[in-house]
Amino acid sequence: MNFDYLIVGAGFTGCVFAREIAVRLRKRVLIVDRRPYLGGVAYDYHNKDGILVHGHGMHVIHTNSKEVFEYLSQFTDWYFTRTKVCVFTRGKLVPFPININTVNLLNGTKLKTRAEALAYFARLGEPIPHPKNAEEMARKRVGKDLFEAVFRGYTKKWWGIEAAHFDVKLTSGIVLRPDTNDEYQNDTYQMVPKDGYCRMFAKMLDHPLITQELGKDYRDITKRVKFERMIYTGPIDEYFNHKHGVLPYRSMRFEHETLNKEFFQPCHQVNYPNDHDYMRTFEFKHVTGQKHSKTTIIKEYPQNAGVGMELDYPIPLSSNQKMFEKYKRDSRRVKNVMFVGRLADCKYYTMGQTVARALTLFKSKLW
Q1: Does residue 47 lie in a domain region?
Q2: Residues 97, 215: one domain?
Q3: Can you give the residue range of the structural domain that contains 125?
Q4: Strand 280-283 and strand 295-304: pairing?
Q5: pLDDT digits (tens, 9 = 90+) for 179-213
Q6: 212 to each of 14, 76, 228, 233, 251, how far by Cα in Å?
Q7: Looking at the domain assignment, is residue 150 inside a domain?
Q8: pTM value?
């Protein structure tokens, strides 16, 4: 069998490239994934109770890009949502990012106006003129008390490492809202596919020039098919047989639980910085809009990624970035292979960013 392109990975990046190559270039594409389903970590399904759930944590597309929205809208109708996150700390459920309601609930203040909030926030931070790490940056922004209540334990759970070991960039984007806006994201478009991600991906790949092989390792495929070029969206260190070492990732273990009640929590995500072994809980019906007498939640337990585990978040340490740069140099010497996507770039992207980047690279590449 002969193909023009072999695409490794059937997540957002792989599916966008497959579609564009088939439609725009009229080339034959074989897309391969070792998972037995489309969508990568955006995989979803209806559980035995009929509730639409996400298999790898909750996934909500958020973007300000009209191009991304209109592109994906070719393949799905939407359920539009406005996401909200809470933090359970000191026995209270408070909004996140930190706003007027957060500090009033936690600290017993009675802030009402934007001016009062700005003045209060200005007094929060510690006098650390030149923060040397992520903890010092966070304490400069919100002070020791809020750092301990909201950020320290959450960071430790997520990465398995204290914030003091990370670069200041990890916490430099902490948001303090001088209002009562409880929305987690402010992006224009916030939505999930009405009939699920997997159906959306199936429609993206519904083209006579696209062939799928799921539940297969691409290295086995290359032994029996011919192709001119490869789009590789897998782990870059795996492509090179880990010659410079294994790039460290955190992986998430998920526990699904269906409860005999309409809703379990007041928002789609609750963070647990200082209570329980799990890091956060998600409740799907808040973002899918599904009507059901029962509800399914998911508890997320972070752990270091091992062999055969999902690679969810690259650990943002400078030593890991140096290792990645070695692989990046190697990738530039490989002919007829494009390395693209969060695992090939060893970088976290939102789904909106992933689609935008794939479309941009497709347009800019000299095919």
Answers
A1: no
A2: no
A3: 85-170
A4: antiparallel
A5: 999 999 999 999 999 999 999 999 999 999 999 99
A6: 11, 20, 17, 15, 27
A7: yes
A8: 0.95
